[in-house]
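hi got a favour to ask and not much time before my train. below you get a single protein, a line of residues and a line of whole numbers that encode the local backbone shape. could you go over both lines and see whether the tokens make sense for that sequence. a few lines back from you is plenty, here it is:
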Amino acid sequence: MISINLKDQKEKENYKLLTSTIIPRPIAFVTTQSRDGVVNGAPFSYFNIVSANPPLISISVQRKENGEMKDTARNIYDAGEFVVHIADDDNIEQFNMAAANLPSCESELEYAKLTPIKSEKVRVPGVREAKVRMECQLVKSIVLGGNGAEAPGCDFFIGEVVFVHLDEQIYDESRINIREFKPVSRLAGTNYATVGNIFFMERPK
């Protein structure tokens, strides 16, 4: 067994270690809207469920090296709303294209040829190409890591899912059909994975 003290390593080394061992990770494509009305879209794999009662999810948006906020984080702070889409085999290339480093005044949706679609409960649009769309309202935000207040490491958001849109092809009798959904997960580096072998195992009572 190899033992590593992460405090003895550089940030890049810890990043590689964590992202290559905590796998697979679901990919959230998050849309937000700026004060000027620009719709921002970006994929995040630091994403998961927090609670079912109420329905809460979390997203961690890493800061730039100088501690500057990314557009997604700034827009969530300003508007208190965002929409989460789950990446799948049919949209992953467009979602990945939206990760391009564009100026704040430009929309990644236009760049990646994604189609905005009006939301039901929030003002932020979603994207039509996703099979799963979750409209969220911000519940809590926490600034974490980095060098403290001068150059934080990330902005951690917890949002309540207030409305969900599902493609008819993947939803049957209150269950998600994984084979039809074809979700894509993030591994390490430029590696991704689709759902392979599915097995069932009962939990102990």
